[in-house]
Amino acid sequence: MPSFDIVSEIDTHELSNAVDQANREISTRFDLKGSSSNFELDNKVVKVTADAGFQAKQLVDILRIKLVKRNIDAQSMDIGDVVPSGKIVHQNVVIREGIEQALAKKIVKLIKEAKFKVQTSIQGDKLRVTGKKRDELQSVMQMLKQSDLEWPLQYNNFRD
What we know:
By secondary structure, this protein is an alpha+beta fold. It folds into two domains: about 70 residues, Alpha-Beta Plaits (2-Layer Sandwich); about 80 residues, Alpha-Beta Plaits, CATH 3.30.70. About 40% of the residues lie in helices and about 30% in strands. It has a four-stranded antiparallel β-sheet, with helices on one face. A hairpin with a 2-residue loop joins strand 6 and strand 7.
């Protein structure tokens, strides 16, 4: 039986490259020269340090651009609040990975409501979709791409 997996994964090497590129851009930008602005990556959490709140917002935009250029979906960013700490401010940007249980149930519900002739099973942080026809599975993929789930999804492990 044909099947495929629905996952939400981030390439950690590309993530570290994007953070390095963002740090390089900070050092070359005229409006940020001489400031204490920087990015630090620690286990899929990017710590943004800036002199002021508006600079932190600029830095998050720079990071978003660099992530998109590295084929990391910007929807995977979970932007935290700006926390002042003396003369500088900190902001954590968590890069989300994996499909949470609530989202998995929502996806299963969407597939069932669309009346596709497939079976869906939740397997940890991924979903396995199985059906008799390859066309049905492709229709499920297309429907999920068009739905607004606000979570980056990838489709892999397609088997015939």
